[in-house]
């Protein structure tokens, strides 16, 4: 990633009416928009930008007139219409904290009446919480799904009541503009390809690789696993995946699983972690095994959290591919476009940065991480 170019481009207005802005990175509340005075323009250099912002990239745009056969027109900025936000996991994770605060800040900046729930990685709880927000009067929903297949009951209830659902950062099973409005998020497959190339370059294409995969049942983990394996198979005949095991996107599991893999496979000299939390756990396990991350074992990760990018700068991590969690501006703007004439494309894919030894310090100094 060229961080200076990113900073220059960050103030640009997206086509398809999707505007850019960013938000602070702090822990979230549970039930209403945040009380702090942060706004959507706290750091425009860190804002999300889209790679596929136009309807033509993914089919016709979805409007309130076409969503699920037609739903009532709403003004989400009238201070009365309730927008529900369902967060999938604890805000102790920097990604979730930043994502939640971004939604809160943008809702406050635009005068949106927001209610929130956090499922803490429990898909059954997420179903119940979405149904509860509907009962409390939510007329439209922003959902960060815990997994792709498990929200059928809540989505069915929302559809029956003509309540649009916008998904962010993970997809759900169903049809865009029918079961959900659209998906806003990263190119997870492409991220994994970059990670494979990073490890290939760091190891000279000769490696015994361990993969720490994310939570089963969601498209993020599926795509990040497939993208990595496909790229290795295509380009690196001497890179062998000797172990692949879920660590559930958590640091604790990342450390425990990595310890087990190092005991079972003493030849591991490279690790691909599908998020930063697992990578940080893996670094601890590698050190506990008496080895030096970045020297004895090369590690590549995905997310772009502050601690991980600091580890890139220090050499403990080879590289970190960003997943930008600042969804607030794009999500709120997408809902406004749903109820306007612009509409929302089925897939809004964001551009993500790439932190390496050549730009990690600059990214940290410019506040491009979270």
From TrEMBL:
Domain of life (superkingdom): Bacteria
Keywords: Signal
Subcellular location, record wording: Cell envelope
Region (Disordered): 30-60
Keyword Hydrolase attributed: no
InterPro entries: Peripla_BP_I (IPR028082), SBP_2_dom (IPR025997)
Name of this protein: Monosaccharide ABC transporter substrate-binding protein, CUT2 family
Location, primary (coarse class): other
Family: Belongs to the bacterial solute-binding protein 2 family.
Start-end of Low complexity biased regions: 40-60
GO cellular component: cell envelope
Leader sequence residues: 1-24
Single GO MF descriptor: carbohydrate binding
Organism from which the protein derives: Actinacidiphila yanglinensis
Stored PROSITE patterns: PROKAR_LIPOPROTEIN
Span of domain Periplasmic binding protein: 90-337
Pfam families the UniProt entry points to: Peripla_BP_4
């Amino acid at each position: 990633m060229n961080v200076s170019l990113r900073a220059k481009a960050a103030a640009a207005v997206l086509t398809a009416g999707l505007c850019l802005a960013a938000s602070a990175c702090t822990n979230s509340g549970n039930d209403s928009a945040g009380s702090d005075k942060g706004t959507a323009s706290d750091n425009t250099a860190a804002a999300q930008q889209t790679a596929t912002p136009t309807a033509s990239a993914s089919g016709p745009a979805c409007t309130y007139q076409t969503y699920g056969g037609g739903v009532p027109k709403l003004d989400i900025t009238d201070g009365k219409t309730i927008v529900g936000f369902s967060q999938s996991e604890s805000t102790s994770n920097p990604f979730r904290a930043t994502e939640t605060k971004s939604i809160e800040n943008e809702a406050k900046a635009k005068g949106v009446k927001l209610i929130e729930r956090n499922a803490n990685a429990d898909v059954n709880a997420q179903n119940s919480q979405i149904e509860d927000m509907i009962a409390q009067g939510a007329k439209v929903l922003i959902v960060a799904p815990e997994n792709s297949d498990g929200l059928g009951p809540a989505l069915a209830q929302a559809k029956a009541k003509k309540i649009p659902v916008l998904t962010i950062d993970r997809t759900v099973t169903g049809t865009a503009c029918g079961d959900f409005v659209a998906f806003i998020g990263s190119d997870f497959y492409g991220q994994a390809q970059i990670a494979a190339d990073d490890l290939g370059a760091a190891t000279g294409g000769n490696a015994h690789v361990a993969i720490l995969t994310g939570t089963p049942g969601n498209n993020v983990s599926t795509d990040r696993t497939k993208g990595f394996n496909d790229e290795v198979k295509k380009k690196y005949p001497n890179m062998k995946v000797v172990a692949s095991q879920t660590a559930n996107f958590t640091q604790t599991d990342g450390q425990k699983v990595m310890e087990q893999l190092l005991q079972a496979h003493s030849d591991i000299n490279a690790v691909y972690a599908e998020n930063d939390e697992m990578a940080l756990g893996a670094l601890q396990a590698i050190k506990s095994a008496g080895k030096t991350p970045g020297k004895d074992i090369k590690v590549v990760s995905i997310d772009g959290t502050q601690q991980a990018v600091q580890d890139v700068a220090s050499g403990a991590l080879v590289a970190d591919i960003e997943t930008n969690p600042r969804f607030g501006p794009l999500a709120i703007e997408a809902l406004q476009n749903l109820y306007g004439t612009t509409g929302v494309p089925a897939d809004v894919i964001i551009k993500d940065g790439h932190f390496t030894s050549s730009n990690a310090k600059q990214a940290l100094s410019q506040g491009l991480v979270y």
